[in-house]
Each structure stands twice: as structure tokens, then as C-alpha cells.
Specification:
Layout lengths: L4 E2 L6 H5 L2 E5 L3 H12 L3 E5 L7 H6 L4 E2 L1 H7 L2 E4 L6 H9 L8 E4 L3 H4 L10 E7 L3 H9 L6 E7 L5 H11 L2 H4 L1 E4 L1 H16 L1 H16 L4 H30 L2 H14 L2 H16 L1 H11 L3 H11 L2 H10 L14
Parallel strand pairs: 2-3, 2-5, 3-4, 5-6, 6-7, 8-9
Antiparallel strand pairs: 1-9, 7-8
Helix pairs in contact: 2-7, 4-5, 10-11, 10-14, 11-12
The structure holds NADPH dihydro-nicotinamide-adenine-dinucleotide phosphate (NDP), ligand LWWEY6Y5 and magnesium ion (2 copies).
Length: 337
């Protein structure tokens, strides 16, 4: 199955420059979209609740901040970049009353549309521009003249031009510099959740922690285990990013490559693949979404417990000490640009 990939020359920045955009939320993605759109000549307003800790950050960056309802009322394009679990109530209370025919409702991830938590009226465009990378890199890449690839999708094309508008928005945040792929809300949501759970966040974090545990429990120094299992991972992934797994294998020693080829499939074996399939099934059936929404409504007890356990893992203390010696990697996790 081939996909359609769109680049800068395929997108008309003038479309989004001709609209007023409300970016609701000013976190990881919100700040990146808002600042890059503004720098691309787009009229942007930020929507945040009174008392939001993001308000001073947005104002310091010279952006106008209103309540979500006021921002939605002013704008032609409303991009929802609040947490997925907050979007349903936000939509009902602040956005739905301010939608009108001809407006466009945009998302950075398809969760609330895919799982039926938000049902927009038929007379507005519903589209998605979902960067395939963390918001802080979306902004950094834009500033550096590069871009993070985006997935672009249209759920509802009331105007007949929703896709061109979404592509124009993607250009405004640098996405079409790297390539924007046309997809659907369902494909983006299911693959994004699978990627972050099984590979990028869940799988990678568990792999790193488990490797660190095996080495330290066998008596090796935590510092050596940290460099081996976490620090060097970035260098290895950089090679994969630049030239695929083949380039990484070309660059490492033959000893490493033989160990990779003969031992890798023993670690990530058919049982792991079966578990990945089960996780994908929970995403496709809506089981994960129901669980996450219920966890959020219950005040996130498991989330808080697991987050605290992760923060207390010995690899974090070891890493903090080692990174303190490397000024170039020690970035505060709260940075916004
Ligand atoms: N993080 C990422 O890199 C990626 C995220 N996405 C998607 O982007 C969306 C935003 O995620 P992310 O950037 O991580 O979110 P963050 O948690 O980083 O930021 C959320 C922002 O929304 C604000 N906010 C919280 N509640 C409300 C509300 N009720 N109304 C308006 N604003 C609110 C927060 O304010 P306060 O500071 O007061 O809490 C904060 O500014 C999600 O759909 C996510 O799936 C997609 C691709 C990657
Ligand atoms: C990998 C996590 C992500 O999907 C992302 C940065 O793309 C997210 O939801 O934050
Ligand atoms: Mg993602
Ligand atoms: Mg995601």
C-alpha cells in the first residue's frame, strides 16, 4: 500500500495565513505549534483556563492569551492541544458553543474522535496535523530550518478544502519540510498508541531498565551499566535515524553485529511479538482507551504510583550524576523552547 507524501511545494501557506488560529493548550505541542505558526506569519491566539500555569509562558513569548471559549469564538481554526483526557470536557464547555459553519476543528492526535469522545457538528471541517515527534523537537527543528514529519488527516470535509487547509497548517509548523503523510484518524490513533506503548516509550524504557537491572544485579558498576544501556542507545539510534538499521550494523563492530543478529531475536522473541499483538488488539478494540479514561476519572491512582516507581528506579540517580558532567545533554525537562 503506497502513501501520499506532501512537501513544502505541495502546500499553500497563504491558506492558514488567511485564518485566525486558536491553539488551545500551551504544553509540549501547543507552544511548538503556536510559536512556529506565528513565525510563519499566522495570526495566533492561545486558549488557556484562568490559573493555568502555562499562561505566563505564553505571555512571556509575546502571545495573546484568552480563555478557551474566547479564543474559540475569535478563531476560524481551533487546534486542540490540551491533554487527550481533558479534551472532551473542554470541547463540550468551551469549544462546541463557539463553533459555526465554516470553522475548522483541528487535533494533534486522533484519540477523542477515534473513540467517539467528541462528535463535532456536520458543518465544520475536522482535521488533524499530528507531528511524529515530541513538541520540543517540533519547535527546535522549525527554528533550525528543519521539520518533524506530520500525519495529516481529514475526518469531516464540510468546506471541501479541509485537506489543503490542514496541509497549509502543517507547512506553518515545518512539517512539510520533512514530509506530511495523508492518513486517517483511525490509522494515526492506533499506530501512535501502539508505537508509544510497545516500542518508543513503553518498550524502550522497559528494555533499558531491564538491561540496567541485569548488569547491576550481576555486580557491575551502575555507571558502566548506565552508559551501556541508556547513554549509548542514543548514539545507536542516531545511526538508525540517519541510515536505517543497516547503517547502524555497518558502523558497529562485526562482534557487535554478530551478537545483534544472533541474540537480538532471543530477547525480542515470538512471545514478545504475541504480547505486542495483544497490546494492538486492546488499542483497536477501545479497551486501552476505556481503561485510560477511567484511570483519569478516578484521579490517576495507578499512573501516579507507576510514575513514582519509575522516578525512583536506580538508573535515574546514576544518570543524574553522570549527566551533570555533560553540559550538552543536561537539558531541564521543563524547558519550553
Ligand atoms: N507531547 C507530544 O509531543 C505529542 C502530543 N500529541 C498530542 O498533542 C496533544 C497535547 O499533548 P501535549 O502537548 O503532550 O500536552 P501537555 O500536557 O504538554 O500540555 C497540555 C497543555 O494544555 C493545557 N490544558 C490543560 N487542561 C486544559 C484545558 N481544560 N483547557 C485548555 N488547556 C488545558 C495545559 O495547561 P497547564 O500548564 O495549566 O496544565 C498545557 O498548557 C494531545 O492530543 C497529544 O496526544 C501529539 C504528538 C506528540
Ligand atoms: C511517542 C509519544 C508521542 O506519541 C509522540 C511524542 O509522538 C506522544 O503522545 O507524546
Ligand atoms: Mg506520537
Ligand atoms: Mg502519542
Amino acid at each position: 500500500m503506497s502513501v501520499e507524501v506532501y512537501y513544502d511545494d505541495d502546500a499553500d501557506l497563504g491558506l492558514i495565513q488567511g485564518r485566525k488560529v486558536a491553539v488551545i493548550g500551551y504544553g509540549s505541542q501547543g507552544h511548538a505549534h503556536a510559536l512556529s505558526l506565528r513565525d510563519s506569519g499566522v495570526d495566533v491566539v492561545i486558549g488557556l483556563p484562568a490559573g493555568s500555569k502555562s499562561r505566563p509562558k505564553a505571555e512571556e513569548q509575546g502571545l495573546r492569551v484568552l480563555s478557551p471559549a474566547e479564543a474559540a469564538a475569535e478563531a476560524d481554526v481551533i487546534m486542540i492541544l490540551a491533554p487527550d483526557t481533558a479534551q472532551r470536557a473542554l470541547y463540550t464547555e468551551a469549544i462546541a458553543p463557539n463553533l459555526a459553519p465554516g470553522k475548522a476543528l483541528f487535533f494533534g492526535h486522533g484519540f477523542n474522535i477515534r473513540y467517539g469522545l467528541i462528535t463535532p457538528p456536520a458543518d465544520v471541517d475536522v482535521a488533524m496535523v499530528a507531528p511524529k515527534g515530541p513538541g520540543h523537537l517540533v519547535r527546535r527543528q522549525y527554528v533550525d530550518g528543519k521539520g518533524v514529519p506530520c500525519l495529516v488527516a481529514v475526518e469531516q470535509d464540510a468546506s471541501g478544502t479541509a485537506f489543503q487547509l490542514a496541509l497549509s497548517y502543517a507547512k506553518g509548523i515545518g512539517g512539510t519540510r520533512a514530509g506530511a503523510i495523508r492518513t486517517t484518524f483511525t490509522e494515526e490513533t492506533e499506530t501512535d498508541l501502539f508505537g508509544e506503548q510497545a516500542v518508543l516509550c513503553g518498550g524502550a524504557a522497559a528494555l533499558v531498565q531491564t538491561g540496567f537491572e541485569v548488569l547491576t544485579e550481576a555486580g557491575y558498576a551502575p555507571e558502566v551499566a548506565y552508559f551501556e544501556c541508556l547513554h549509548e542507545l542514543k548514539l545507536i539510534v542516531d545511526l538508525m535515524y540517519e541510515g536505517g538499521i543497516a547503517r547502524m550494523r555497518y558502523s558497529v563492530s562485526d562482534t557487535a553485529e554478530y551478537g545483534d543478529l544472533s541474540r537480538g531475536p532471543r530477547v525480542i522473541d515470538s512471545r514478545v511479538k504475541e504480547k505486542m499483538r495483544k497490546i494492538l488488539g486492546e488499542i483497536q478494540s477501545g479497551e486501552f482507551a476505556r481503561e485510560w479514561v477511567a484511570e483519569d476519572e478516578a484521579g490517576r491512582p495507578n499512573f501516579a504510583k507507576w510514575r513514582a516507581e519509575g522516578a525512583a528506579h536506580p538508573i535515574e540517580e546514576t544518570g543524574q550524576k553522570l549527566r551533570a558532567m555533560m553540559s550538552w545533554v543536561d537539558r531541564p525537562i521543563t524547558e519550553t523552547a
